[in-house]
Design brief:
The protein is mainly alpha-helical. The protein contains three helices and two strands, in the order ββααα. 25% of the residues are buried.
Length: 92
């Protein structure tokens, strides 16, 4: 994911899935993760990482909606792929 603003040009690497079942809906899941980060006022880096993680989790299952989402799993994927966790709170 690449973000270009008036002051930043940032590329966030993809989150690597453990396996791929179905890519349908990955873009929508990534967008949902991005919107979570924006709404929580996270940095663009963390916002992009959340989007990448959500898309990654979706391609690992059948269907176009996540059956469940566990914050511990999200944080584990952040650590595995980026070497650090996402912010610990989702603020509105």
């Amino acid at each position: 994911i690449r973000f270009v603003t008036g002051t930043e040009d940032l590329t966030v690497p993809a989150c690597k899935p453990t396996h791929v079942v179905n890519p349908t809906g990955a873009g929508d899941a990534a967008r949902a993760g991005f919107l979570i980060g924006l709404a929580s006022k996270w940095s663009l880096r963390d916002t992009g990482r959340m989007g990448a993680i959500m898309g990654c989790l979706l391609v690992e299952q059948a269907g176009t909606l996540l059956d469940s989402l566990d914050w511990k799993t999200v944080q584990q994927r952040a650590w595995e792929n980026y070497g650090e966790e996402l912010p610990s709170r989702i603020d509105n």
